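hi! just following up on the protien thing from before. the input was this:
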Amino acid sequence: METIQSVRWSDDGHGVRIIDQRLLPSRLVECDLRSLDDVVNAIRSLAVRGAPAIGIAGSMGLVAVLAPNANDAREKLIARAREVAEIIRNTRPTAVNLPWALDRMIDRALRTDGDGRAIVDAMRDEATAILEEDRAMCRRIGERGVSLLNDGARVLTHCNAGALATGGIGTALAPIYIAAERGQAVEVFVDESRPLLQGSRLTAWELQRAGIRVTVLTDGMAATLMRREGVDICLVGADRIAANGDIANKIGTYHLAIAARYHELPFVVAAPTSTVDPATATGAEIVIEQRAADEVTLIGTKQTAPSGVCVYNPAFDVTPAELVCAIVTDRGIFRPPYRFS
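and the predicted 3d structure came back as:
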């Protein structure tokens, strides 16, 4: 399979190169993020998206923004690093990987002796380590999660939790990619994932590119597909996992979990350990990002609702732990009751 690199260093090493996911599936375009505005706008506009990917892009973007200040005194550079990290942190509040990565970057800066140049170099090493660790974690998630897929498995997924959302082969899609590598037959059904269609635009694009059989359906068709025995397992990613196992993920995940429970299908979540947030006791404490009305009232430039109508547009919902059969991480498969150490 051809490897997709959704986020990496630019060729000159001074910027962050991303695939602009707003343009998929019609165009594959890469762009470099070099300024604070570049990084913030790319994350906020979903040019780069997916909890692991925005954590990587945020950490690498912090380095790109600080690099011109490498000759500053230590105290001045660390103050600037804190300021920039806080701005990047506030771009998207729900996914835990972004603050996790930025906290790690600031910690590395504080632990580094020497002048501003030494600190920037150490932070660059840390951001590179976050990227490489994510690639390895994706692989481990896939190798653990593939045990849940029988030969010929029919998998239903939601949104995009593949290579485009991570630094590696994905989270929820990682077991599918590993199964395909091993010659195991697998078929994937992909919810459109309204309102931004990350399922039909992104997941279907990367699976088709990898030669994996994929079928797109609207979100409202999932329960009917389950009833007609077209699904063996539901496999989704997560943007934040509370200490009790509650899952924050793309809006529409909750109703998928309810339908899976009714039809007695396993509902499985796959995510890196960095997505588990022990400081958040339950899903009730997770801040849910509210996004712009035009994401719902427009498809592209086509108006699909009356002008001025009220719009409810949370980007995520929370699935209670009791609806989740298993959580696959790079450290193992967890089952209820969820206790993460």
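The first strand starts at residue 7 and ends at 9.
The chain is about 35% helix and 15% strand.
cheers
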